[in-house]
Amino acid sequence: MSKELTFSIIKPDAVAAGNIGSILQMISDAGLKIKATKMIHMSREQAEGFYAVHKERPFFGELVDFMISGPVVVSVLEGENAIARYRELMGATNPEQAEEGTIRKKFATNIQNNAVHGSDAPETAAVEVAYFFSNIEMVG
Ligand code: IDP
């Protein structure tokens, strides 16, 4: 039984709507441990680098504009099977398809302004954690 790390962002829509506390509570209630967390306001360069895999997608420019429209809360979560468990808690990308009880069902506005990000695989989780956190910040 090995622990896994995943990377989470509470996106600008959810921060602006005052949902940081509720989302962190849902994460905690789901049994995922918060190893590190901080509020940041991403620069355009940071957001473009973070979403580089999507740079050919038609929504890339708008996605970057959205992600730098206000502060976000970035976190490192730990638990067994944390990547899949957090994706399940987040719900589908499009909130219209998200299941009851998921973060996106509760707090997302639309397919872009969808409250949270979570890593989709161990390789991306490692890159995303290192993109925003140094080892010294992983205190939990
Ligand atoms: P995910 O966040 O559920 O993993 P991805 O397909 O990796 O979904 O897309 C990354 C982010 O890009 C989404 O969370 C959402 O904010 C945005 N996005 C995805 N698809 C669309 C779209 O069709 N229109 C606008 N924004 C989109």
Description:
The protein is of the alpha+beta class and about 140 residues long. The chain has one domain (about 5-135): 2-Layer Sandwich (Alpha-Beta Plaits). It has helices spanning about 10-15, 20-30, 45-50, 60-65, 80-90, 105, 120-130, and strands spanning about 5-10, 35-40, 70-80, 115-120. It has a 4-stranded antiparallel beta sheet, sandwiched between helices. It is globular and about 40 Å long. The two termini are about 20 Å apart. Bound molecules: inosine-5'-diphosphate (IDP). Inosine-5'-diphosphate binds next to loops.
List the defining traits of the structure above.
kinase; nucleotide metabolism; Nucleoside_diP_kinase; Alpha-Beta Plaits; four-stranded antiparallel β-sheet; binds inosine-5'-diphosphate; transferase; 140 residues; 20% strand; 4 strands; alpha+beta; EC 2.7.4.6
Share of β-strand residues: 15-25%
Count of discrete alpha- or pi-helical segments spanning 4 or more residues:
7
Average pLDDT, rounded to a whole number, is 97
CATH architecture: 2-Layer Sandwich
Task: Extract low-pLDDT stretches.
Answer: none
- Residues in helix, %: 25-40%
Question: What's the CATH C level?
Answer: Alpha Beta
| Strands side by side in the biggest sheet | 2-3-1-4
Q: Sum up the overall morphology in one term.
A: globular
Order of helices and strands: EHHEHHEHHEH
CATH topology: Alpha-Beta Plaits
User: Radius of gyration over alpha carbons?
Assistant: 14 Å
**Number of E-type strands:** 4
- Unique bound compounds: inosine-5'-diphosphate
Biggest sheet overview: 4 strands, antiparallel
The end-to-end distance, rounded to whole angstroms, is 19 Å
What would CATH call the homologous superfamily?
Answer: Nucleoside diphosphate kinase-like domain
Domain Nucleoside diphosphate kinase-like: 3-140
Keywords: ATP-binding, Cytoplasm, Kinase, Magnesium, Metal-binding, Nucleotide metabolism, Nucleotide-binding, Phosphoprotein, Transferase
GO molecular function: ATP binding; metal ion binding; nucleoside diphosphate kinase activity
EC number: 2.7.4.6
